[in-house]
Amino acid sequence: MRILIVGATSAIAHETAKRFAKDGAEFFLVARSPEKLEDTGNDLKVRGAKRIETFLLDVTDLDRHQEMIETAISTLDGLDMVLISHGTLGDQQKCQVSVSETLKEFTTNCTSVISLLTILAGYFEQQKRGCITVVSSVAGDRGRQSNYVYGAAKGALSVFL
C-alpha cells in the first residue's frame, strides 16, 4: 500500500499511519515541521513501514500542491491512498479584527484541502482506483461563537466533501 499523508504529524494521522505501518505500507509524509516529520517517520519505520519519504510543505502555499503530489506519485511509483489531516484552530480574537487572519485560517482549513482534492481526484479518476480520506471537524456541523471562523471553514470543507 502506497500512502500519501498530508498533515502527517497530526495525532489522528499518526495513529492511522501506525495501523498501516504494521502491514508494511510505504509512506510519503507531508508536514511543515521538519523535526516532527522526522520523528513521525522514524516511529512508523520501527512499526514496520516498508518505506518512508518526507516532504516539507506549508499547505497555504497552494502553488506547491501540484509539485508535492507529482513528487509523491513519482517517488512511490503511484498512490493507493491519501489521508488529508491538516488544520489549525486559529486565534478567533485575531480573526475578528483581521481579514488577513480570517483568510489565512480559511486557506489552511478549507481552501488548501479543496486544492489538494481537486488535483488528487483527477489522478485517482484517471487511475480508476484509490482512496482519499479527509479529516474535517464536528465544529463544521455546529456554529460556536468562540471559534466561528474555524467552524465556518470546516463547515465549508464538509459541504465540499
Architecture overview:
This protein is α/β, with parallel strands linked by helices and 161 residues long. It has a single domain, classed as Rossmann fold, CATH 3.40.50. The chain has six helices and five strands; from the N terminus they run βαβαβαβααβα. The chain has helices spanning 11-21, 34-46, 65-76, 92-97, 99-127, 148-160, and strands at residues 2-6, 26-31, 51-56, 81-84, 131-134. Strand 1, helix 1 and strand 2 (26-31) form a beta-alpha-beta unit. It is globular, with a radius of gyration of 16 Å. The two termini are 24 Å apart. The mean pLDDT is 95.
Distance between the termini: 24 Å
So, the CATH homologous superfamily?
NAD(P)-binding Rossmann-like Domain
Question: Beta-strand level of the residues, as a percent range?
Answer: 15-25%
**Biggest beta-sheet profile:** 5 strands, parallel
Broad CATH class: Alpha Beta
